[in-house]
């Protein structure tokens, strides 16, 4: 066992001598607190193998992939951090300015750092949706109700209300700042993540093999959130029971491109396809294989957008020209291979198809609509 510190005067511990065996091969720099009441007891000297050190209260096991591991600190450089009782920090290159709560697990990670006292963990970030040149930004905060985001995105004419909303977000963001610390909450797990920076990770959340920065992941034992499978998450808010591993509840984005888009619940996006500059708060639709929902450039500037309606189904290999508004065409289906011109469609439960026959003096590019 080998323990090193720049100064033992700034290493604070709690617990009993019996838990010394659970702190091994660690380097401490700056102020390090081990255990719930670590600020009460200061470690003033350490002699190798003398057992004069008092460690954090690491007495219980924690579960990693359903396998029990002894809590404690192993093979890690810990800088200006808190590691509370029965947490596990193991084989991590650097743990910097991080609060590791009871029963949390940090194993096999690269660097976990905090960049300063003014970090916001993604709160206050302006989410650009719809038209890519700006004008429909939504400033987000951690426990923002989905319907509020939809209202802010839809309603852009009332300047005083928008200013009041922006003031609310600024106040919220200031109040939730964590004095320049990452937070790894109760029973959260960070496994093999190469780089973590400026994060709040909620209770029982799971981050595996992923890079995460400037983000908040809200989670609870009943509604666990996760970031898995070599994902990269930056300047984001994940709410309870959100999963990133390949948006809004029960929406899946598997492959392809989703840019500058506000997706509501229950949107199916399971195939190689594209959706760009869409504002779809009511969701419940589908983007089929090969769908090109993203003709948002009139010339060079990406200055157009699409408003799909609730339940709209974009079929295989469709091509949707912008600007278009299908908000009053709820649960309509755009059939396979159809190209639609810029338009406003006000017929719900309709089938949009290619023309079944030619009509003189009418462009063949005009779609045929079958009422539902």
UniProtKB/TrEMBL annotation:
Residues 5-221 form the DUF4954 domain. It comes from the Eukaryota. InterPro entries: DUF4954. Pfam families: DUF4954. This is DUF4954 domain-containing protein.
């Amino acid at each position: 066992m080998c323990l090193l510190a720049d100064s033992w005067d700034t290493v604070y511990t709690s617990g009993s001598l019996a838990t010394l065996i659970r702190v091994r091969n660690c380097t401490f720099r700056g102020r390090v607190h081990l255990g719930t009441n670590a600020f009460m007891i200061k470690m003033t000297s350490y002699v190798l193998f003398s057992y004069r050190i008092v460690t954090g209260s690491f007495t219980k096991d924690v579960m990693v992939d359903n396998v029990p591991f002894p809590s404690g600190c192993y093979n890690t450089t810990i800088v200006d951090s808190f590691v509370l009782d029965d947490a596990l920090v193991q084989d991590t290159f650097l743990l910097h300015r991080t609060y590791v709560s009871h029963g949390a697990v940090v194993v096999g990670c690269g660097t976990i750092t905090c960049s300063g006292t003014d970090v916001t963990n993604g709160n206050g970030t302006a989410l650009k949706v719809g038209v890519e040149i700006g004008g429909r930004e939504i400033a987000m905060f951690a426990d923002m109700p989905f319907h509020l985001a939809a209202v802010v995105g839809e309603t852009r004419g009332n300047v005083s209300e928008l200013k009041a909303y922006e003031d609310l977000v600024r106040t919220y963001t200031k109040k939730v700042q964590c004095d320049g610390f990452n937070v790894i909450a109760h029973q959260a797990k960070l496994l093999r993540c190469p780089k973590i920076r400026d994060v709040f990770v909620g209770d029982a959340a799971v981050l595996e093999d992923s890079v995460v920065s400037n983000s908040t992941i809200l989670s609870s034992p009943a509604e666990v959130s996760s970031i898995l499978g070599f994902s990269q998450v930056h300047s984001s808010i994940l709410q309870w029971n959100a999963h990133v591993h390949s948006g809004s509840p029960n929406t899946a984005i598997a492959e392809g491109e989703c840019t500058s888009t506000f997706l509501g619940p229950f949107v199916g996006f399971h195939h190689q396809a594209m959706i760009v500059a869409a504002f779809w708060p009511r969701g419940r639709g589908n983007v089929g294989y090969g769908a090109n929902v993203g003709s948002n450039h009139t010339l060079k500037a990406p200055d157009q957008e699409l408003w799909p309606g609730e339940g709209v189904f974009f079929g295989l290999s469709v091509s949707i020209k912008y600007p278009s508004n299908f908000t009053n065409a709820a649960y309509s289906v755009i059939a396979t291979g159809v190209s639609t011109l810029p338009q406003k469609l006000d017929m719900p439960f309709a089938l949009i198809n290619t023309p079944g026959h030619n009509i003189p003096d009418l462009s063949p590019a005009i779609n045929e609509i079958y009422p539902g």
